[in-house]
Amino acid sequence: MSINFQQLTSAGIAKLKPYQPGKPIEALEREFGISNALKLASNENPLGPSPKGLAAAQTELGKVNFYPDTFALTDKLAKKLSVEAANITLGNGSNDVLDLIARVFLAPGRNAVFSEYAFAVYPISTQAANAECRVVKALPADHPDMPYGHDLPALAQAIDEHTGVVFIANPNNPTGTWFMLPELLTFMQQVPEHVIVVLDEAYTEYVNIEGFPSGLTLLQQFPNLIVTRTFSKIYGLAGLRIGYGVSHSDIADLLNRVRHPFNVNDVALVAATAALDDSDFLRASADMNRNGLKQLQLGFIELGLQFMPSVANFLTVDTGRDAAEVYTGLLKQGVIVRPLANYGLPQHLRITVGRAEDNLQVLAAFKSVIKS
Ligand SMILES: *Cc1c(COP(=O)(O)O)cnc(C)c1O
Q1: What is the predicted pLDDT for the residue at 96?
Q2: CB–CB of 134/163 below 8 Å?
């Protein structure tokens, strides 16, 4: 007897496509029988974890018989961000917070609005809540300022009375594109107050352009705003899974009602608390990224390949052909990058900025693949 389990779930979940993670180094080494593979596929920090975070995590391992306590991190974050502890929601990665938001503010009959070429978790959380994904065209590839970027006026236009949430990311993944304060303010003023705006700032610590907006400064003015951030990127703690949302305390209260008790583990909490103080590491990571982004951009110009504008820790390159072939060619050379066909970008590859020597290696591998 065979059971069709697909029919036992909801339509939204039956149609879900699972998230595709970047290929792990060990998987490539196993498959190709190579060693010393380089992974620049998941926007992880190439300098490793924050040393302060790592040291704290190691010490904490001896205490994992106790359930985790969120007080220290919440308190420290509140002080650092100049908000109250009641404004903060901790998540098992910021993805967890995105999912809590979907569970609280979406439902059958509602929709979530987000851009074409947006983060893969937005449609997953939306469909899992059995809400409709309302995908808005991105700015065109030949746009003079921000090709492939969020079209904020069009996103605002797409909102209707059934919209529960709008997801926007600044800078955005997988494009690297961004928007500035005036555009964000105009957008926020156009969004009805019954609609939750999620401003995903996973990469904000990397941005080094003058006047780049922080969503935190808008929370007072716009109580329907939730800002999400993560320890996965510049803090180098992706494997520990910890991120957070900052919002009106009434929103945080709702999120906390559906949040599983102890959703964030003890080691992650302690590591994140220590990593917040690791200013040397944060500075070194941002400096390396700034130089590395330039290095990659110059390298791709030399190779005659175009790329999207980026202020994040990755660069999205147009290979000018089916990117799957280039991806496989790079794998054979021991370099893992990220194909973007599942984001509707079959000719593009996303490359995480590495250390100078990593960037040289990826550029050399690209050169040999595209010339062959
Ligand atoms: C990497 C990333 C995150 C972070 O996810 P975590 O669950 O915190 O690891 C969030 N949003 C975007 C757009 C990202 O690219």
Answers
A1: 98
A2: yes
